[in-house]
Amino acid sequence: MDIKLKDFEGPLDLLLHLVSKYEVDIYDVPIVDVIEQYLAYLATLQAMRLEIAGDYMVMASQLMLIKSRKLLPTVVETEPEETDPELELLSQLEEYARFKAASQEMAKQHERRALFYSKPKVELVYEDISLSHDKSIQDIFLAFSKIMAEKQEEIRQNHTTIAKDDYKIEDMMVIIEDAFAEKPSIDLADIFKDAKDMDQVITLFLATLELIKVHRVSAKQETVFGRIVLRKEWT
């Protein structure tokens, strides 16, 4: 089974996606929260052995610098710095948002113009998985990143040695479906409560994506970076 996640167009695209969830001006977003979401996303990609472009890691180092400065006590500086890395980043995001909005408008105009041609338009790229309320696969992946970070810490503190098992997506799909035997909906985080190691956590997540893809499970997220609730779709 080959499950691929659609990549963002670059680190700024990922940051813009995270920032846009707050529905406020770019300069008013809680930047530390955004940074933590970004770093959790990269950590999850690494744990799933997915390839990460170098520019994402460069951005991660810049974000860690900004986060450390935000968390350090404020001191009076004799001479102000020439550049503020946080303001510089937000300015880049603002500019990127303008260019992206312009490109999206041009794409819409191109689609409207394409309607005048006799040859029908064929959509070759599409998303297999979507959440209600116009949520995308990236939203469930970002939510999983937070869950995975918490689970990693839990496993790290557990000193019990467990023999590594080989997990199959098909088997995990059965386990998830069995969890709906007594109730129609389950919190996504509850799926991973009994996971023994990170390999099982990842396989459970991929199984969840596959169940959503084949419309046996639906996913709903009511608030920004809030919990995701899974609901069974079969009778």
Describe this structure in words.
Helices cover 52% and strands 7% of the residues. The protein is mostly helical. The strands form two sheets. A three-stranded antiparallel β-sheet has the order 3-5-4. A two-stranded antiparallel sheet has the order 1-2. It is globular, with a radius of gyration of 21 Å. Residues 122-127 have low confidence and may be disordered.
Secondary structure layout plus pairing:
Blueprint lengths: L10 H10 L10 H17 L6 H18 L13 H30 L15 E2 L3 E2 H21 L11 H11 L5 E3 L10 H16 L3 E5 L6 E5 L3
Antiparallel strand pairs: 1-2, 3-5, 4-5
Helical residue percent?
A: 40-55%
Total helices: the number is: 7
Order of helices and strands: HHHHEEHHEHEE
Oligomer: single chain
Q: Please state how the strands of the largest beta sheet are arranged side by side.
A: 3-5-4
Low-confidence stretches: 122-127
Rg over alpha carbons: 21 Å
Terminal residue distance: 25 Å
Keyphrases for this structure?
235 residues, mainly alpha, three-stranded antiparallel sheet, two-stranded antiparallel sheet, 5 strands, 52% helix, globular
What can be said about this structure in brief?
The protein has 235 residues and is mainly α. The chain has helices at 11-20, 31-47, 54-71, 85-114, 137-157, 169-179, 198-213; strands spanning 130-131, 135-136, 185-187, 217-221, 228-232. The chain contains seven helices and five strands.
